[in-house]
Structure formats: C-alpha cells, structure tokens
C-alpha cells in the first residue's frame, strides 16, 4: 500500500512531502525543514508539539491534531493510523498503519536510546521499535 509520490504515500495520505503536496491529507512526522512542505489545499496530521513548531517556523496551514496513542481514520480511507514517539525531537512521531488485518509502520528520523531530553523509541515501545 506504500508508494513513492513526492514523499511516501499510504492510501491517499502523503507522508513528509519533499515539496508542496498535491494530496489532500498529509502526515508530518516532525518539524524539521526537510520533512515539512505546506500547502493551502492540504490537511496536515501531526502531534500538537509538531503543529506548534511548524506554525512558528513555517506558517499557518490546516492542521489536525493527533495525540500519541490516538487512533485516527480519514474519511473514505480503509485504514487507520496511530502515532508513537520516536525519540528524535519534540513531538516527533512514528506511525503504525492498520488495514485489512495487516500493520505497517513508518518512522523517519528516530533515536533508539534515551537522550538527555527524550526517551528513545525503543524504551517507549516496551523494548520494541514499531
């Protein structure tokens, strides 16, 4: 179900686009500039800290807040996704996609070990990195 189209795409959800997305629905894994390209035509799904950082650094867009552990579905899609911390920066997330009894995981930049500021993805997932 994953394909490449200006970033990784799952269903019709574009993940961390490389340039302004054509897709209506976009997931931003974190607020670093190489993962954020905004469009006035898209809805951007991200954690609250990522949304705050993106607004401060890149400007306004149509955002949809997704908390860690919250299952989210998109109207018209046959999958849901859930976000988990990945230990990279404030608000950074990995996403677990569930569709048709199968699970797929996306993570961009991540840290496995704990740092001074954040628990690593490995620690937060109970010894597993999704």
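Q: What amino acid sequence fits the structure above?
A:
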């Amino acid at each position: 179900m994953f394909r490449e189209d200006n970033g990784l795409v799952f269903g019709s959800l574009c993940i961390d686009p490389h340039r302004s997305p054509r897709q209506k629905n976009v997931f931003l894994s974190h607020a670093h500039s190489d993962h954020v390209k905004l469009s006035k035509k898209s809805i951007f799904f991200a954690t609250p800290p990522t949304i705050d950082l993106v607004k401060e650094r890149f400007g306004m867009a149509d955002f949809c807040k997704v908390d860690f552990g919250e299952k989210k579905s998109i109207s018209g899609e046959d999958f849901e996704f859930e976000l988990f911390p990945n230990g990279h920066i404030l608000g950074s997330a990995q996403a677990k996609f569930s569709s048709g009894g199968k699970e797929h995981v996306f993570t961009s930049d991540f840290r496995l070990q704990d740092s001074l500021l954040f628990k690593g993805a490995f620690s937060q997932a109970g010894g597993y990195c999704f």
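Q: And what stands out in the fold?
A: DSSP finds two helices and ten strands in the chain.
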